[in-house]
Amino acid sequence: AKHLLSIEQLSPEEIETILNLSDEYVDLNRRQVKHSDALAGLTQINMFFENSTRTQASFELAGKRLGADVMNMAMQASSVKKGETLIDTALTLNAMHPDLLVVRHPHSGAVELLASKVNCAVLNAGDGRHEHPTQALLDALTIRRKKGRLHRLSIAICGDIAHSRVARSNLILLGKMENRVRLVGPPTLMPSQIAELGVEVFDDMREGLKDVDVVMMLRLQRERMDGGFIPSEREYYHRFGLDAEKLSYAKQDAIVMHPGPMNRGVEIDGLLADDINRSVIQDQVEMGVAVRMAAMDLLARNLRASSDEGVMV
Ligand code: CP
Asked: Where, by residue number, does carbamoyl phosphate bind (predicted)?
């Protein structure tokens, strides 16, 4: 493919290919071999129209470790603030001939629209409540490395599902890899077309976590709640916050995940988040660099192959 816009677009075989190459990059990074030339001579521009710590930092590091020239657009200081549209901004950058554009945007579908207007490869770093494909891939890599497989696992995704692109991408990926996914959270924070998803839904944490292999917690996405239902933090933590007691309903070796940023004492107990015997939150961050290296490496191979074809024609 030319772009990485969604998990929806990927086949199980393509997901495996990305994870297998990511595994090689994890091992390389652990041996502190932090440079290769997979993206040498290529220009990567990161455009984040929404705040980010993990995704932006890891895309930047990934590009630099692969030898790309990486530029971070400071969107807060850009001409977007003077009224320039997303498409005009993209066309302006496109005229500078980047090879890879990494884009995060608050509106669902904005990254796909942008990809249709530019010549380079586009990677979706999160669009509204639609998809966050590299997050689901790094979650999958973490699960595969911790559990030794990525199929026939029982996985509970818990919390604010309705507003979460992370939940959506994970649901699609884990389903494609033949896992049993459950959604756990208040009915007010479940997507409206829940029946079409074909997954089990629980509004009780103890029932929802019973015998699962993986517990994936999510943040309350207040910025996407549009003045609708916003639960009180204390009440929410009491009913849906993950602590050791609720986790005791899951399998004894169940792992705890969170994409970050987390709100300690709202959706997760701070001590549990730091418990390295159960929590793999820092592993997820580490896998994020490797997955983004692999995704950009594979897209760059396609770019080079199609430009070689161009020369031959
Ligand atoms: N998980 C995630 O996307 O984190 P950031 O918003 O910090 O990039």
From this structure: 54-55, 104, 132, 135, 260-261
